Sequence to fold (337 residues):
Amino acid sequence: MKRALENLLGTGSVQENVVLAPYTTMQLGGPADLFVEVTSAGALAHAIKTVRELDLPHFLLGCGANVIIGDAGFRGVVIYNAAQNIEFDGNQVTAESGTIVYPDLIEASVARSLSGLEHYVGIPSTVGGALWQNLHFLSPAPARERTMFIEEVLEHADLITAENDLQRVDVDYFEFGYDYSVLHRRNDIVLRATFRLTPAQEVDLRKVMTENLAWRALRHPPLDTEPSVGSIFKKIQGIGAGRLIDECGLKGASFGGIVITHRHANIMINQGEGTAADLQALVAYVQKEVATQTGYHLETEIDFVGEFDPPTGGSPVFLPRPAGLITAEELAARRKA
Ligand SMILES: Cc1cc2nc3c(=O)[nH]c(=O)nc-3n(C[C@H](O)[C@H](O)[C@H](O)COP(=O)(O)OP(=O)(O)OC[C@H]3O[C@@H](n4cnc5c(N)ncnc54)[C@H](O)[C@@H]3O)c2cc1C
Fold:
């Protein structure tokens, strides 16, 4: 399999048995049989076409911020998207789909006094992952009245479609919704995207960035010391998955090395030795407890990819709340009092 792929992609372009955990924000996942890193949109299109023609199972990985990869790894080819060229043309920016949204794309846009992407500061994502998910955030401060979506500034995107055609598509093609785009149901791959930005004062954009980073820092565990995949469960309109989990008293619940952080009940963190099997056990436990106590069924909003060992057995251990931790809700209540 490796030789056939290298014949088409170039000698030395294919690595074997690459452990995927370091390529994900949750630091979970076993080895990919084969691993190909692409550094341009052209190379990405070529790699996708090649694995399709050879009929090899494959998966395209961006920042790995929305996926849990099984401990047994991935049987097939993981294509790691490091195509990161960015070009400006007036108020528009075109970024290859492996471009890191923050800091790379946002910093480049803000430095040119162009507004539209600054709201998504601090969210780990490639441009491709952002369109897959319709990246969103409650912004700007202080009102935070509505969720802003990346579709609002998308002009068009270049794809290699599921049928292997190179095609430019506009925003309607994506059927964007909350945490949804057509990429969930069609095997199209985004090669690059063009965003329509608006001239603004850099100082105002930096203010939005600072406020949003501060908002996130209060609610989200820092990725470098408390690896996570962001929210685990889908939002339940008007109720909030995190609130239900909190009300059921599940903060601090852990299996093995994966724990529900006391900072935010919808976020699980990897304490170092966590496994995907631990995570699956904790997810199942939370779903069962919340269903029993409240009647609501929580659905996961992340992708599970590759081969999984059976979930860790036994009962959860409850870890105490770290001394000195103040949640965003507690801080808000203190300010009001
Ligand atoms: C701490 C933390 C905070 C977060 N906060 C937010 C938030 O506020 N708002 C929000 O919306 N999300 C948030 N997320 C979720 C995550 O950042 C987004 O889902 C992000 O867009 C994922 O991008 P990625 O590059 O990591 O995609 P990956 O996780 O690598 O991939 C996700 C899916 O997209 C597919 N994909 C990737 N690139 C392409 C492409 N070029 N073409 C087609 N399909 C592709 C993959 O195959 C996979 O199915 C958060 C995550 C973390 C860890």
